[in-house]
Amino acid sequence: MAKESSWPERGAVAAPSGGTSAVWGECKGSGSKPYLAAVHLDGAGGTAYKCSCPSRKIPCKHVLALLALWTQDGVADREERPEWVAKWLSGRAARQERADSPAPADPKRAAATLRRREEAVGAGIDELGLWLRDQVDAGLAEAPKHGYDHWNRMAKRLVDAKAGGAASLVSRLPSEARGNGWPERLLERLSLLHLLVSGYRAGDALDERVRGAVRSRLGITVKAEEVLAGGERVRDTWRVLGWRDAPALEADMRVRRLWLRGTGTGRVALSLAFARAGQTPATPFRVGTDVDAEFAFYPDGHRVVPVGDGTTGDAPPPEGGTVAEALDAFAAALAEDPWRDTWPVVLDRAAPAHDDRWYLTDADGAALPLATAEPWRLLAVTGGHPSTVAAEWTPGTGLTPIAVWDRNGKAVSL
């Protein structure tokens, strides 16, 4: 489809600041009416796609063909555009304007809503504390025999109490009560839930970051607007380490975790992007680049919201370390957030090795196991030679490489 004869009508909309704002086209189909496809490239909410075909895939094959034709200089700028294109772009602009200018909030109503939320969460946490005590008092020997209802009742109660994060932690307990070594794993998970209950009850007595981590793990969300208004702001040149997709708490959502590290401050920053199942989360920054920008940090001290647009440029490989230094950094992160199960690490001169499973070794000979059983892409890029590797470390599972820099210093996303 990416040929000019398939698109008798097509055009590009120039952006005021230069470049292309949108591309559109009418693709010949099997029916009498063409498929109407368009892409908004520089929208405030990220790239958006539109097509009149019945495909459930987003973007569909018509949109992809239009983009391919555009990259081949097959779509020229046109001042005139069809009514359907103008209506779609103006509608997106109007929605963004409404989002940028929300109605003024009622302080009393907002305070009452927050108070009701805290009361609901507090009641749910009290009930969780009693339930955890009951599990330990009854002993763990019968835990593998419990059906899912035993665990789901507590999880549903926490959902009702608006503590979705804690509900997710409870819903994972049945999988821990299986397999070899289940008593230790289950007791550890119950202990972490007990620590979460104690942390919430401690309230303002906690360190600010620890308190932010507690509330985040419980599922008490903070809006991006609130972070921009009152969050800690740090300006630095941020080196992009890599990203990884994973399921979100909601069953039909996916989250993309993108990790960055400040070259001046050494601060780790986490940018999250969400998308519906079947769609691709946005990637605001490219692996192998530096981002000169200011970030506003969420209360947990790691997740960030960009403050305005930053400038990007190609960057050398990030500074790596040894396995011991990576584990020390993870231990420091656990001191602020004991419930954290992933952390970015960068290993210098790391090489794959295989014994009973695959490992990543450093120059000192220390090694960490890889989470994947077949790291063929990593092996293909490095040829087995020592390289700079960025990965997510998950205790009990292992390292998941997310980016590697080849011998020419080029970054390859894994």
Overview of this protein structure:
With 414 residues, the protein is of the alpha+beta class. It has four domains: 4-100, no CATH class; 107-217, no CATH class; 222-314, no CATH class; 323-413. It is 35% helix and 28% strand. The strands form three sheets. A six-stranded antiparallel β-sheet has the order 12-11-10-13-14-15. Strands 7-6-5-8-9 form a five-stranded antiparallel β-sheet. A four-stranded antiparallel β-sheet has the order 1-2-3-4, covered by helices on one side. α3 (107-138) packs antiparallel against α4 and α3 (107-138) packs antiparallel against α7 (182-202). The protein is globular and about 75 Å long. The two termini are 29 Å apart.
Topology, pairings included?
Layout: E1 9-14, E2 20-27, E3 35-40, E4 48-51, H1 61-71, H2 83-100, H3 107-138, H4 148-160, H5 164-171, H6 173-176, H7 182-202, H8 208-218, H9 224-230, E5 232-247, E6 253-262, E7 268-276, E8 289-297, E9 304-314, H10 323-336, E10 343-354, E11 358-361, E12 367-369, H11 376-382, E13 387-394, E14 398-405, E15 411-413
Antiparallel strand pairs: 1-2, 2-3, 3-4, 5-6, 5-8, 6-7, 8-9, 10-11, 10-13, 11-12, 13-14, 14-15
Helix pairs in contact: 3-4, 3-7, 4-5
